[in-house]
Design brief:
With about 650 residues, the protein is an alpha/beta fold. Helices cover about 40% and strands about 20% of the residues.
């Protein structure tokens, strides 16, 4: 039975405060009063006088539904999904021990005059070995089937499939070091979860087993098990309490999702959707299979509820270097105020060389470099632009070294044709080289100190998510993908990630065609031919932002503003289309070039100070849409959209 103390503990207030709210005996702030009343409703608490009156009036009549849940879990479980199943019936939440016998269950049912009883999966129902009991009017959630026909109904929430969904989604995003954190569940659920973990580990040939599962109980303050454990790169939580615990730990350690830790939550309650709408989750909704437990007498004895994966923003593609090793984040390049002062005293200078400095992307990286260098009084030697000529670029790099550069920043979307040049520089001069945007896979680590790049796999995932979410919101399915096979390495990785994500994560999206070789010149004429072949297309990914802009203008003339269009290039014209026409189905998934420039200078400063820097560092992309484009555009470009 839920008590006043239970309500107070769930709200984090005193019993006196709860009493004042219920009895209107003293002023309590409207916000706190609303929280208390919501908890009272969620837990099914009734004041003693009301409960006695109801019990007296219901003697011999029944009509109440009892919800039996573990005492350890009660304070951390909203149970809203189960309460909603009760319809208009009287609902009594009953806290019990971790396990009860069939005899005890029948006694509880009689004591509270229950018409039906629902046993939560946090409770272990122990069979009576001596005799069969009449379990009519009892719904067992994820329990072993009682021996014999005892008139009990079973609701199976498929935790096994739910865990497989979560793990496969993480595997597809590159995560192999995963921790599973579970709340109190009975042995049936535990077996389901362990079977899923072992099956996925075998399927993907990774070391994942029961040693990767942490079982928690109690209040989500600072569980000792979590403080002692290493979560790896991703976490799957099962139940509300583990989710609250990992969120507390993340806040204390200043971890962000998904940049530093990816997270998927599995639960059988609607609390996650209401309170953590940004968390990717697998929902096990008992209401799917059981609209109302009042109809238990006409339902089959076994009911199944299949899980639903809801993809949001707490899972990202694990940043990897070209060798498939885990990349580092920008936190490794952070400098303290003292370190920045030391850099100023050294009067260092750095050289900057662009393979092609005429692009908007290069201009923004240079602006970031100039801002960060000025902040630390680092002198910039005359910036070099090789205009896509490798021989000129190599001569420019040697010239910067001869001018006394303490470090060199070399920026290109494809450094492949500079491998021999970097090798010669390393052997002859020894000046530290910082690469921007691209690391050739065959370049020895001896030849460079670090590479600053965009997480292109994550960029592709975000493109696919934006495209699929917008299309599914409008009940659309048909999409076309437009690539340029001659694009730089990072763009090719992004394109591959788009295809992989759509295929594995959004099977409802039907890719009508992949156009591999569309260039800006003549693109509109080529697209008109495509539109004639697929007049019912509903979504487009155009890698080139210029092509995306031309397509948008063409579609608008056709009266097709319903088509979702997304690009992975930053482009002023396309951004203005998003803003001026206020179309929520247009989007840019962009790198952060000015930030890249900042971190390249921080890398140079760290090297000058003699600090170790990781060999490969990635920066997460960002999505621009009609809600944020005006705010983010100036931050990304230092310019206004007009």
């Amino acid at each position: 039975m839920v008590t006043l103390q239970d309500v107070a503990a769930a709200c984090g207030v005193s019993v006196t405060t709860v009493s004042h709210v219920l009895n209107h005996t003293r002023y309590v702030s409207p916000e706190l009063a609303a929280q208390v009343l919501e908890t009272v409703k969620a837990l099914g608490y009734e004041p003693l006088r009301k409960r006695k009156h109801r019990e007296i009036s219901s003697v011999g009549v029944g009509g109440s539904i009892g919800f039996l849940i573990s005492r350890d879990l009660l304070m951390n479980c909203g149970c809203r999904s189960y309460v909603q199943m009760a319809g208009n019936s009287n609902w009594i939440t009953i806290a019990v021990s971790d396990s009860i016998t069939e005899k005890e269950l029948i006694q509880i049912k009689k004591s509270y005059h229950l018409t039906q009883a629902l046993v939560h999966s946090s409770v272990e129902l122990l069979p009576d070995p001596k005799k069969e009991n009449d379990l009519s009017g009892v719904l067992l959630v994820n329990q072993e089937t009682p021996k014999g026909d005892r008139n009990a109904h079973r609701l199976i929430l498929d935790y096994k499939t739910a865990m497989e969904m979560a793990l496969r989604h993480l595997f597809q995003c590159g995560h192999m070091s995963i921790t599973v954190i579970c709340s109190h569940l009975n042995s049936f659920c535990r077996r389901q979860l362990l079977e899923a973990v072992e099956r996925c580990a075998e399927e993907y040939a990774i070391p994942l087993g029961k040693e990767n599962i942490i079982w928690l109980s109690g209040a989500p303050d600072e569980p000792e098990q979590l403080r002692r454990s290493e979560q790896g790169t991703a976490v799957v939580t099962v139940g509300l309490y583990p989710l609250q615990a990992i969120m507390i730990q993340a806040a204390q350690n200043k971890l962000s999702f998904p940049e530093e830790l990816s997270l998927i939550a599995i639960d059988d309650d609607s609390f996650i959707d209401r309170n953590y709408p940004e968390i990717t989750s697998v929902e096990l909704d008992p209401r799917q299979a059981l609209p109302s437990i009042e109809q238990m007498d006409v339902l089959p004895q076994e009911l199944f509820s299949m899980p639903t994966l809801k993809i949001r923003d707490s899972v990202g593609c694990l940043p990897l270097d070209p060798y498939g090793r885990k990349a580092s984040g920008t936190s490794s390049l952070s400098l303290t105020l003292t370190e920045k002062l030391l850099v100023r005293r050294k009067k260092a200078c750095i050289g900057v060389s662009f393979a092609n400095g005429s692009t908007l992307f290069s201009e923004m990286i240079l602006q970031g470099i100039q801002e960060a260098a000025a902040n630390m009084d680092i002198a910039l030697l005359p910036v070099q632009d090789a205009k896509n000529n490798p021989e000129i670029e190599e001569n420019q790099l040697f010239s910067l070294i001869q001018q006394g550069a303490s470090a060199i920043i070399s920026i290109s979307n494809d450094h492949q044709n500079m491998v021999e040049a970097f090798t010669r520089i390393a052997h002859s001069m020894g000046t530290p080289v910082i690469l921007g945007s691209h690391l050739p896979i065959n370049l020895s680590e001896f030849c460079y100190r670090t590479c600053i790049a965009t997480n292109d796999d994550e960029k592709g995932r975000m493109v696919a998510k934006f495209l699929a979410d917008e299309m599914q919101r409008k009940n659309q399915q048909k999409a076309i993908l437009i690539f340029d096979k001659n694009s730089y390495v990072g763009a090719q990785n992004c394109a591959a990630s788009v295809i992989n994500t759509l295929t594995n994560t959004y099977p409802k999206i039907q890719v009508l065609e992949q156009i591999i070789n569309m260039h800006s010149s003549g693109a509109l004429m080529e697209f008109e031919t495509i539109y004639e072949a697929y007049p019912d297309l509903q979504g487009i990914y155009a890698q080139d932002a210029g092509i995306a802009g031309n397509i948008c203008e063409f579609l608008r003339k056709q009266g097709r503003e319903d088509v979702t269009v997304v690009t992975s290039q930053i482009n002023n014209r396309f951004a203005r289309q998003i803003m001026l026409h206020n179309i929520d189905s247009l989007g840019i998934v962009s790198s952060r070039p000015i930030e890249m420039g900042h971190w390249m200078v921080n890398a140079a400063a760290s090297i000058i100070l003699g600090k170790n820097v990781p060999p490969y560092i990635t920066i997460e992309p960002v999505v621009l849409n009609n809600e944020n484009v005006e705010e983010l555009w100036p931050m990304l470009t230092r310019s206004k959209l007009v």
